[in-house]
Amino acid sequence: MYNKNHIKEMTRLLTLKGCTPGTINAYQACMKKVLTFLDKPVDDITTDDLLDYLQHMITLGRTSSTINQNHSIINFFFSQVLRKHHIVAPLPFMRKIKKLPEILTITEVEAILNCSQNLKHKTIFMTIYGSGLRIGEVLRLRVSDIDSKKMQLRIKEGKGRKDRYTILSERNLKCLRDYYRTYQPNDLLFFPYSYKDKPMSKNTIEKEFKSTIAAAGINKKVTPHSLRHAFASHLLENGTDIYTIKSLLGHSTLRSTEVYLQLSPSLVFSTKSPLDQESANE
């Protein structure tokens, strides 16, 4: 039970903020779930009602990151759209449990690529890993974003609506050319079936990835995004400096990139103590 005009007003404000369509869709989906769950007029919703909803998410086993994301969306809706900041002000954010993601080895990445029977899906997985892309970024790629002369990929409006360039491997370029000859894309590089003007859905790629890792015999809890993690970790282990990796990944701050130091312990713990270096000089 909710007035659709409230969702429209939220959409208008998000559009004026310059949010991406993906962000706007996420806000819309979240608030529709919240308001449907509470099932009462928006003006009658209290702080306790919203606490009940967040508690419901905990009961469902949602992660702290997901719950906090919902918290932020609820906060925007009530403070910016309804201008009732006092209702959401008492809502606490959940303390984040920082778990390091599982990292795929180079052998496991190769197994994934070898077990992917569909050329389109294989090309997507290879591009995510070979260039360190987010799943949304790879699905928004255009044919014109591939620069085979400079061996670069242009990423338009990545996270935070920022453009950047990242590397393109020779092996990936060959795969992309095979894909181009087979599927003949016009503008959008990856599309579902014969709908060349529509992007593929993330769900499709996630389902295909899940079946591929099962076929490859990989038991780790990984997603397509894990290929991006592997890209960064493997570059770091091969001696690429962290500032270059930050640029390739499109991170806003070095803090986001520094997590890969923890994911590459062999690199960190192979460092000699300065005490040993002093002893060697004696």
TrEMBL record:
<keyword id="KW-0233">DNA recombination</keyword>
<dbReference type="InterPro" id="IPR011010">
    <property type="entry name" value="DNA_brk_join_enz"/>
</dbReference>
<comment type="similarity">
    <text>Belongs to the 'phage' integrase family.</text>
</comment>
<dbReference type="GO" id="GO:0006310">
    <property type="term" value="P:DNA recombination"/>
</dbReference>
<dbReference type="InterPro" id="IPR013762">
    <property type="entry name" value="Integrase-like_cat_sf"/>
</dbReference>
<feature type="domain" description="Tyr recombinase">
    <location>
        <begin position="99"/>
        <end position="273"/>
    </location>
</feature>
<dbReference type="InterPro" id="IPR010998">
    <property type="entry name" value="Integrase_recombinase_N"/>
</dbReference>
<protein>
    <submittedName>
        <fullName>Site-specific recombinase XerD</fullName>
    </submittedName>
</protein>
<dbReference type="GO" id="GO:0015074">
    <property type="term" value="P:DNA integration"/>
</dbReference>
<dbReference type="InterPro" id="IPR044068">
    <property type="entry name" value="CB"/>
</dbReference>
<dbReference type="InterPro" id="IPR050090">
    <property type="entry name" value="Tyrosine_recombinase_XerCD"/>
</dbReference>
<dbReference type="Pfam" id="PF00589">
    <property type="entry name" value="Phage_integrase"/>
</dbReference>
<dbReference type="InterPro" id="IPR004107">
    <property type="entry name" value="Integrase_SAM-like_N"/>
</dbReference>
<dbReference type="Pfam" id="PF13495">
    <property type="entry name" value="Phage_int_SAM_4"/>
</dbReference>
<keyword id="KW-0238">DNA-binding</keyword>
<keyword id="KW-0229">DNA integration</keyword>
<dbReference type="GO" id="GO:0003677">
    <property type="term" value="F:DNA binding"/>
</dbReference>
<feature type="domain" description="Core-binding (CB)">
    <location>
        <begin position="1"/>
        <end position="82"/>
    </location>
</feature>
<dbReference type="InterPro" id="IPR002104">
    <property type="entry name" value="Integrase_catalytic"/>
</dbReference>
